[in-house]
Amino acid sequence: PHGRVFNFSAGPAVLPVEVLEQAQADLLNWRGSGMSVMEMSHRGKEFQSIIDAAEADLRALLSIPDNYHVLFMQGGASTQFSAIPLNLAGEGDTVDYIVTGSWSKKAASEAKKYCKVNVAATGDNKSIPARDSWNLSADAKYVHYCDNETIQGVEFKGAPDVGGKVLIADMSSNFLSKPVDVSKYGIIYAGAQKNIGPAGVTIVIKAKVLYDAIAGSNGFYNSPVDPAVRSLMNVPFTIPSNPDLEKEFIAQAAKQGMIQLKGHRSVGGMRASIYNSMPLDGVQQLAAFMQKFAAQHA
Ligand code: PMP
After folding, report:
1. From residue 260, how far is each of 66, 160, 173, 293 by CA, in Å?
2. Residues 57 and 114 in one domain
3. Nearest ligand 1 atom to alpha carbon 151
4. What is the pTM of this model?
5. Which burial class, exposed, middle or buried, applies to 84 when counting CB atoms under 10 A from its CB (0-12, 13-18, 19+)?
6. What is the ipTM of this complex?
7. For residue 124, what is the domain's CATH number?
8. Which of 56, 221, 248, 267 is least surrounded by Cβ atoms within 10 Å, i.e. has the fewest?
9. Which of the following is catalytic: 30, 116, 141, 170?
10. 77 CA to middle of ligand 1, Å?
11. Distance between CA atoms of residues 260 and 267, nearest Å
12. pLDDT tens per residue, range 147-195
């Protein structure tokens, strides 16, 4: 319906049709105000009620404790790469970074402009270094890590124990995809363009469909990531026997309405991003296509 595609983009990502239709209607006349959210005063009571409701919903969804603030910011997650060290550390202070993929690496590089960065652990982009190998500094102002590496598809399965240090997580690509014990964190931040919106189908069953399709392909497809830390949001895979086929896979899938399956340019291969709003039907159609494509080219 509506000529919609299955959009597997890593972000900006798919939104539910019901949400788009509601937004479409609200854009002409928000609840009898005679105007849209883009036209009303940001100090008026209408806008205040919108932002208050958004905050209350978020607090309820994540059980955010009362002693935590919720900030709706501009500038995307990248701005927080500098805002966090600028606000929490001075020039001579040490901060710890755990690098498990491209985004945490970027965050660490940005922080280096403002304070002393200790990279306490560096992964191989496929797995997460064992906690007892981390070299945390005694005096770090905070420990920063990325809960889900969007490009590599490497995801933490719980908050790491940093022994009472202030823990900061970039949850841009798995925000609101699972319950999180907010009290374990000093700061959680996330860009909004991927997951935020009413949840669609259950995430775990979605991701399992794709990893099963990869596992059941007799080696035609390969998932590079350690099974213990495979992301439920971003599923990268390759065709190891013939990487030239990957282009054709992406092109043929697009013809069948499954778009944005190309892996990030820095790693190549394919990547299916299956955020909250991706319908299960889309994931099942992709798994069926993968099976057919493998049968044709094996
Ligand atoms: N962190 C992660 C984990 C991301 O996936 C992204 C966006 N792909 C960013 C940070 C950067 O976010 P933004 O584009 O909102 O600056």
Report:
1. 39, 32, 16, 17
2. no
3. 5
4. 0.92
5. buried
6. 0.98
7. 3.40.640.10
8. 56
9. 170
10. 5
11. 15
12. 999 999 999 999 999 999 999 999 999 998 899 999 999 999 988 877 7
Q: Is 170 labeled as catalytic in the residue annotation?
A: yes
Domain check: are 21 and 68 in the same one? yes
Give me the CATH number covering residue 226.
3.90.1150.10
Active site residue 103: yes
Residue 230 alpha carbon to ligand 1 centre in Å: 18
Quickly tell me which residue has 């990893």 as its tokens: 211
Provide the domain limits for residue 138. Answer: 76-189
285 within some domain: yes
Instruction: Kindly state whether residues 136 and 119 are assigned to the same domain.
Output: yes
The predicted-structure confidence for 105-130, as pLDDT tens digits, reads as follows 999 999 999 999 999 999 999 999 99
Question: For 20-79, how does the pLDDT look when each residue is reduced to its tens digit (9 = 90+)?
Answer: 999 999 999 999 999 999 999 999 999 999 989 989 988 998 999 999 999 888 888 999
pLDDT at residue 200 is higher than 70: no
Q: Would you state the pLDDT for residue 203?
A: 38
Q: Which of the listed residues 142, 159, 189 is the one where a domain comes to its end?
A: 189
What is the number of other CB atoms lying within 10 angstroms of the CB of residue 248?
14
Q: Tell me, in angstroms, the distance from the centre of ligand 1 to residue 275's CA.
A: 14
CB distance 197 to 276 below 8 Å: yes
